[in-house]
Amino acid sequence: MNIPFLDLKTQFREIEGEVLPMVKEAMENAAFIGGPQVSGFETEFAAFCESKYCVGVNSGTDSLRFALMAAGIGPGDEVITVPHTFIATSEAISQVGAKPVFVDILPDTYNMNASKIQRAIGPKTKAVIPVHIYGQPADMDSILEIAKKKNLVVIEDACQAHGSLYKGKKAGSMGSVGCFSFYPGKNLGAYGEGGAVVTQSEDIANKIRMIRDHGQAKKYFHDMEGYNGRLDAIQAGVLRIKLRRLPAWNEARRRNAQYYNESLSPIKGVTVPTEADGCHHVYHLYVILVDNRDGLQKYLNDKGVGTGLHYPVPLHLQKAYAYKGYKEGDFPVTESVAKRLLSLPMFPELTKAQIEYVAECIKQFMAKK
Ligand SMILES: Cc1ncc(COP(=O)(O)O)c(C=O)c1O
Asked: pLDDT per residue over 242-260, tens digit each?
């Protein structure tokens, strides 16, 4: 059997009857930037995220960068986040001129360990960015509580968590701003680059609308310098078509995670994902931990099973951050998880038979040890 890590082609066949006429209409109307598709998507995604406002931007990275700028964070400020995330989270902090400060993660959910925040707070700390890693919200009650006490802005990196819930609340709706990526492989993915911020604050939404469009509230009247960071109309049209199916697709991911859990939990040496109490995980990624991760990855590859590593080198040990002087041992949970993690095929259209095949291959490998 050949099982890709991600299959976007099957999903396209399901929606092509809607996507292709939408693209044709955009071309015929020469409506590419802004317009009703973008505003329509923003209204629908804000409602989906139980947030008052949504502003479409060019990528998840832009959403984080613009959220930080709108919060007034810049040179001299420090922002707390985790080393177990995609580099875009910390890049955004550095790119507004602030300094990323890392705290370790929890060993069961791989999300920010809120009990580590206090010690990382200094006089320059202005914000905290929890990352809802793999599709499961971080421990938001604890993070919001400490942020409130210390007057910190909370920006949710929900780039992997479209539609996930924390105690009934939508990811992205709990902090000052929620940031989303629509990179094609995400649970809600565009057919190109895309991102969005959601917020309950009209002021923040207005600021980000200006930042994404060269600092102009009115054409050619620039109140500030901004960026070319807009979501384009064709991507917004694709996202509207996909958003209608997202709840069902997330449920399919959850069902697939359940099949994996049932097959893999009995295998000695395999740690399956944990869904924390009160969390509704949407399994952007289904990540297991095993000691001989490289061996298993190679074995699965030989058996036709695609896998991924999210992420094999923690941020504090990346060359890009060598100047910060972090060393091995600084964030032991992150480091231990990074050595053992393996992302298995996960997408809504994955079949039970495919999952059983992956699980059978893992069982064979673990029995050989
Ligand atoms: C946790 C996290 N943050 C930020 C991003 C950046 O999103 P984008 O690739 O759309 O810029 C991603 C996407 O890969 C992500 O997974």
From this structure: 999 999 999 999 999 999 9
Q: Which one of 183, 231, 310 would you pick to mutate in the ligand 1 pocket, going by the greatest count of ligand atoms within 8 A of its CB? A: 183
At 209, the amino acid letter reads R
d(CA 59, CA 318) in angstroms, rounded, equals 23
- Cα distance between residue 206 and residue 78, in whole Å: 24
Atom 12 of ligand 1, nearest CA residue? 159
CA neighbours closer than 13 Å in the CB half-sphere of residue 233: 16
- Is 195's C-beta closer than 6 angstroms to any atom of ligand 1? yes
Q: Compute φ and ψ for 255, nearest 5 degrees.
A: -65, -40
Q: In this structure, what are the phi and psi dihedrals at residue 79, rounded to the nearest 5 degrees?
A: -130, 130
Per-position b or e across 3-34, b if 16+ CB within 10 A of its CB: bebbbeeebeeeeeeebeebeeebeeeebeee
Closest CA to 24 of 182, 234, 232: 234
For residue range 281-306, what is the model confidence (pLDDT) as tens digits? 999 999 999 999 999 999 999 999 99
